[in-house]
Design brief:
Length: 148
Protein backbone atom coordinates (compact mmCIF):
# COMPACT_ATOMS: atom_id res chain seq x y z
CA UNK A 1 0.00 0.00 0.00
CA UNK A 2 1.09 3.52 -0.63
CA UNK A 3 1.62 5.90 2.23
CA UNK A 4 -0.56 8.96 2.26
CA UNK A 5 2.53 11.11 2.75
CA UNK A 6 4.56 11.73 -0.38
CA UNK A 7 8.21 12.58 -0.03
CA UNK A 8 10.29 14.70 -2.34
CA UNK A 9 12.13 11.57 -3.53
CA UNK A 10 8.85 9.93 -4.53
CA UNK A 11 7.76 12.98 -6.49
CA UNK A 12 11.18 13.32 -8.10
CA UNK A 13 11.25 9.64 -9.07
CA UNK A 14 7.81 9.92 -10.70
CA UNK A 15 8.93 13.01 -12.61
CA UNK A 16 12.08 11.21 -13.84
CA UNK A 17 10.00 8.22 -14.97
CA UNK A 18 7.69 10.54 -16.89
CA UNK A 19 10.55 12.44 -18.51
CA UNK A 20 12.56 9.36 -19.41
CA UNK A 21 9.92 8.08 -21.80
CA UNK A 22 10.94 9.60 -25.09
CA UNK A 23 8.48 10.26 -27.84
CA UNK A 24 8.78 8.48 -31.20
CA UNK A 25 9.51 11.85 -32.83
CA UNK A 26 12.40 12.47 -30.43
CA UNK A 27 13.85 9.09 -31.32
CA UNK A 28 13.58 9.90 -35.07
CA UNK A 29 15.25 13.30 -34.53
CA UNK A 30 18.03 11.75 -32.43
CA UNK A 31 18.68 9.09 -35.08
CA UNK A 32 18.82 11.71 -37.84
CA UNK A 33 21.18 13.87 -35.81
CA UNK A 34 23.47 10.90 -35.09
CA UNK A 35 23.53 10.20 -38.83
CA UNK A 36 24.56 13.81 -39.48
CA UNK A 37 21.27 14.87 -41.09
CA UNK A 38 20.15 18.25 -39.77
CA UNK A 39 17.72 18.95 -42.64
CA UNK A 40 14.50 16.94 -42.55
CA UNK A 41 11.26 17.05 -44.48
CA UNK A 42 7.87 16.25 -43.00
CA UNK A 43 7.42 13.39 -45.49
CA UNK A 44 10.67 11.75 -44.33
CA UNK A 45 9.66 12.06 -40.69
CA UNK A 46 6.21 10.66 -41.42
CA UNK A 47 7.77 7.71 -43.27
CA UNK A 48 9.94 6.96 -40.24
CA UNK A 49 6.88 6.97 -37.98
CA UNK A 50 4.30 4.60 -39.49
CA UNK A 51 0.93 4.58 -37.80
CA UNK A 52 1.05 8.24 -36.75
CA UNK A 53 -1.62 10.45 -38.25
CA UNK A 54 -0.70 13.62 -40.11
CA UNK A 55 -2.40 15.78 -37.46
CA UNK A 56 -0.59 14.06 -34.59
CA UNK A 57 2.71 14.48 -36.41
CA UNK A 58 2.00 18.18 -37.01
CA UNK A 59 1.28 18.71 -33.33
CA UNK A 60 4.41 16.80 -32.29
CA UNK A 61 6.56 18.85 -34.68
CA UNK A 62 5.19 22.09 -33.26
CA UNK A 63 5.83 20.88 -29.70
CA UNK A 64 9.45 20.18 -30.63
CA UNK A 65 9.62 23.61 -32.25
CA UNK A 66 8.39 25.29 -29.05
CA UNK A 67 11.04 23.38 -27.08
CA UNK A 68 13.75 24.66 -29.42
CA UNK A 69 14.64 21.25 -30.83
CA UNK A 70 13.41 22.06 -34.36
CA UNK A 71 13.24 25.18 -36.51
CA UNK A 72 10.94 25.58 -39.50
CA UNK A 73 12.90 27.46 -42.13
CA UNK A 74 10.00 29.13 -43.92
CA UNK A 75 6.25 29.18 -43.74
CA UNK A 76 4.56 26.69 -45.97
CA UNK A 77 7.66 24.58 -46.52
CA UNK A 78 7.86 21.17 -44.95
CA UNK A 79 11.56 21.69 -44.32
CA UNK A 80 12.68 21.36 -40.69
CA UNK A 81 16.09 22.00 -39.21
CA UNK A 82 17.29 20.04 -36.18
CA UNK A 83 18.99 22.21 -33.58
CA UNK A 84 21.82 20.18 -32.00
CA UNK A 85 22.45 20.71 -28.30
CA UNK A 86 25.74 22.51 -28.93
CA UNK A 87 23.86 25.15 -30.96
CA UNK A 88 20.83 25.42 -28.65
CA UNK A 89 21.95 28.78 -27.23
CA UNK A 90 22.17 30.27 -30.73
CA UNK A 91 18.85 28.67 -31.69
CA UNK A 92 20.20 27.12 -34.89
CA UNK A 93 23.35 25.59 -36.35
CA UNK A 94 25.55 27.85 -38.50
CA UNK A 95 24.29 28.49 -42.04
CA UNK A 96 27.11 26.39 -43.53
CA UNK A 97 25.43 23.32 -42.06
CA UNK A 98 22.02 23.79 -43.69
CA UNK A 99 21.88 26.64 -46.22
CA UNK A 100 22.89 24.72 -49.37
CA UNK A 101 20.41 21.94 -48.82
CA UNK A 102 17.61 24.40 -48.06
CA UNK A 103 18.24 26.61 -51.08
CA UNK A 104 18.87 23.88 -53.65
CA UNK A 105 16.61 21.02 -52.50
CA UNK A 106 13.70 22.77 -50.81
CA UNK A 107 13.44 26.03 -52.74
CA UNK A 108 15.18 24.93 -55.93
CA UNK A 109 16.76 28.36 -56.29
CA UNK A 110 20.30 29.03 -57.49
CA UNK A 111 22.16 31.16 -54.97
CA UNK A 112 25.53 32.27 -53.75
CA UNK A 113 26.77 33.57 -50.44
CA UNK A 114 27.63 37.16 -51.13
CA UNK A 115 29.44 40.27 -50.05
CA UNK A 116 30.73 40.42 -46.50
CA UNK A 117 29.42 36.91 -45.69
CA UNK A 118 31.59 35.37 -48.40
CA UNK A 119 34.59 37.38 -47.20
CA UNK A 120 34.10 36.03 -43.70
CA UNK A 121 33.92 32.47 -45.01
CA UNK A 122 37.32 32.93 -46.64
CA UNK A 123 38.78 34.74 -43.63
CA UNK A 124 39.09 38.07 -45.44
CA UNK A 125 36.54 40.04 -43.44
CA UNK A 126 37.81 42.67 -41.02
CA UNK A 127 34.40 42.74 -39.29
CA UNK A 128 32.31 40.22 -37.41
CA UNK A 129 29.37 39.30 -39.61
CA UNK A 130 25.99 39.34 -37.90
CA UNK A 131 23.82 38.44 -40.91
CA UNK A 132 24.53 35.99 -43.71
CA UNK A 133 23.83 37.59 -47.07
CA UNK A 134 22.65 35.37 -49.89
CA UNK A 135 22.09 36.46 -53.49
CA UNK A 136 19.17 34.90 -55.39
CA UNK A 137 17.75 35.68 -58.87
CA UNK A 138 14.43 37.07 -57.60
CA UNK A 139 13.63 39.14 -54.54
CA UNK A 140 12.66 37.06 -51.49
CA UNK A 141 11.60 37.85 -47.99
CA UNK A 142 14.40 37.63 -45.45
CA UNK A 143 14.33 34.63 -43.15
CA UNK A 144 15.39 34.60 -39.53
CA UNK A 145 16.76 31.37 -38.15
CA UNK A 146 17.88 31.16 -34.56
CA UNK A 147 18.64 34.02 -32.23
CA UNK A 148 18.88 37.31 -34.07
Amino acid sequence: TRSRYVTFNDTFREWIDKMSTTSPLSMVLDAAERAGKLNLWTQDIHAAMPGVSAEALRQALHRQQRRGRLVRLSRGSDHWLIVPIQHAVAGAPPPEAWLDRYMTKTLGVPYYVALLSAAETYGASPYAVMVTQVMVPERRRPITVGRQ
